Amino acid sequence: MGWDPYELLEPWLAATLYPSRTRENYQAHTGDWLDHCRESGLEWDKVVAQHIALWAHRPEAPHSATARFRGSFLLCVCGSQGCRCVQSRGPSSPPHESGPVDSVGLDPWQIAVLLAAFDERGHQDRACGYLQIGLGLRAGALLAVNLDDLSTERDIGRGADTLRLPYAGGGYRLVALPPLVSEAANAYLPRRRPPRDGRQGGPLFTNRTGIKMPHRYPHDLLRTVAAASGLLSTPL
Q: Does domain 85-228 have CATH number 1.10.443.10?
């Protein structure tokens, strides 16, 4: 990315309303995460679940999986204004740069709790949850995603890393999938049930008979996971 992660983190933490002790913990955890990345030859902005798992073996790493998710995700949150996505307002318009999709307004701790909980679910639920949390997609937008909306700019066979999202007035934007979101989506794709009419593509999320998942599925899934994680009082 070309950003100094410390230059991103410190002013972001200073601007939050967290108690000083919370800010100190977040800074310590994220600092140890950056040390882990540097010593392991990892890129902090291309984190995948295996990197977080390896971090657990460091003496100064947070003890809980939730805290480790939060520590690694914090930099993505505070650096999100630097993320870019490609958009196009119509077939005759060349793509141009735009800011990222809006988040759902959860703080890093809530995000970490939910992501850790979604990791305990099946592949479809996990992909649905990561797209909701990682991209801030609402239920309607999520269920409107078709298989053909996933694409890749990487080598063939490496999996999807971009998602096409439509504008209400026509046209579309291509949104880069964060590595953890891309990993969850690609793990689900081989297990997705294709439409029962045999056509290619179709809705991304289908049930066991190949029918598009009901419109309540993403919302009910998020509520179920939030309730099990003790976050039911959080506005969703």
A: yes
